[in-house]
Structures are given as C-alpha cells and as structure tokens.
Amino acid sequence: MAHAAGHNHTNSHSAADDHGHHDGHHDQESLRMFGFWLFLITDCILFGTLFATYVVLMGNTNGGPTPHELFEMPGIIAETFILLTSSFTSGLAVLAMNRGDRKGLIGWLAVTALLGLSFITLEVMEFVKLVHEGATIGTSAFLSAFFTLVGAHGLHVTVGLVWMVAIMIQLRKHGLTPVTRRKVNVISLYWHFLDVVWIFVFTIVYLMGVM
C-alpha cells in the first residue's frame, strides 16, 4: 500500500515536472517570438530612416543620371510580381503546416525560396547594369540613397533565403515540432514584412522616379 502510494507520488511528481518543463519550453518560445517582433520593429525604424533619407536626396543627382533616365520598369514590375507571388506561396506553406502536411510545407517553402532567388538575381542584374552605365553609389547623393535603400532590402531577402533553407533542413530532420512551427511562422511573417517594404520601394523609388 505504502509502495503504491510512493509510486503514485513519484508519478504525480514526474507529471508535474513534465508540465513544468512544457511550460518552460512554451515560455521560451513566446520569448523568442517577442524577440522577433522587437527585431521587426527596429527593422521598420531602419527602413523608415532609409526611405526618409531617399526622399530628401532623390533630387540631388549632381548632374548625373536621374531616376527617370535610369529605371527600366519592365524588369522592376517582374521583380515585384515575383516577390508578391513568393509572399503568397509562403502563406500556402503555413497553411500546409497547419494541416500537418510536412511534405507540402517543405514544397511551398522551396517554391518561395526559388522565387526569392529569382528576385535577387534580377536585382543584382539591375545593379550591375547601372554600375556598368556609370551610375554607382558614389555618383550622386540620389544614387547613394538608392543603392543603400534597395540594397538593404535585397540583403534582407538574401538573409531570409538562407534562413528558409536552414528551416527546410530542420523540418526534414526533426519534422513538425513546436520549435520548427515557430520558425516557419517567423520566416513567413518576415517574408510578408519584406514584401510590404518592397511595395513602398516600388512606389516611392521606382514609380515616383519615372513619373
């Protein structure tokens, strides 16, 4: 009887331990999510500053080429279409995850990463072309602001791609766990954020530039 009571006591003790461990893990995940939101807020401030600088310096072409002369809209529209599509596919990845479909999740993340890679390739080609035409970061204040703003966005997309590939590897290895789920949610939010930033880039830099 005493033995059974002791056994029960041990059981309830390990259950409480388990529960405590689960809670601790949950708190850790919430904390990490909170950290990510803080990062996004600081990123918003960073891009806000870059946009403000660009708007101020936009007219300072120093006798060099103007936005109107430099920007070729077909390529930019293609970049925009690719990035908007990738935002949609990253949403489909989250839907697959919520259904518990690991294969579908990895598949949609792969499509998103490929679209992101196409976007970066087009952007690099655009930069190379500009530099080739003599429009470098040192040519004028307008171009310094342009390369800094658009380059910062491109760098963020590149970081997102590396991150996405790392998550796909983790999903293959560990499957759907609370940790991998949080990571997928985080990368999806980050990707949507970059999409929103690009819409501002497209409007303020390119559309206003060619108007």
Helix content: over 70%
Query: N-to-C SSE series?
Result: HHHHHH
Count of individual helical segments: 6
**Structural classification:** mainly alpha
Number of strands: 0
Query: Which word captures the global form?
Result: elongated
For the termini, the CA-CA separation is 87 Å
User: Spans of 5+ residues with little confidence (pLDDT < 50)?
Assistant: none
The biggest beta sheet is recorded as: none
Radius of gyration: 23 Å
Mean pLDDT: 90
Relative strand content: under 5%
Structure description:
The structure is a single chain. The model has no long low-confidence stretch (mean pLDDT 90). The protein has 211 residues and is mostly helical. It has helices at residues 2-57, 67-70, 73-98, 102-132, 141-174, 178-210. The chain is elongated, with a radius of gyration of 23 Å. The protein is built from six helices and no strands. Helix 3 packs antiparallel against helix 4 (102-132).
What is the gist of this entry?
This protein is mainly alpha-helical.
List the helices and strands and how they pair.
Blueprint: H1 2-57, H2 67-70, H3 73-98, H4 102-132, H5 141-174, H6 178-210
Tags for this entry?
single chain, 87% helix, 6 helices, mainly alpha, elongated, 211 residues
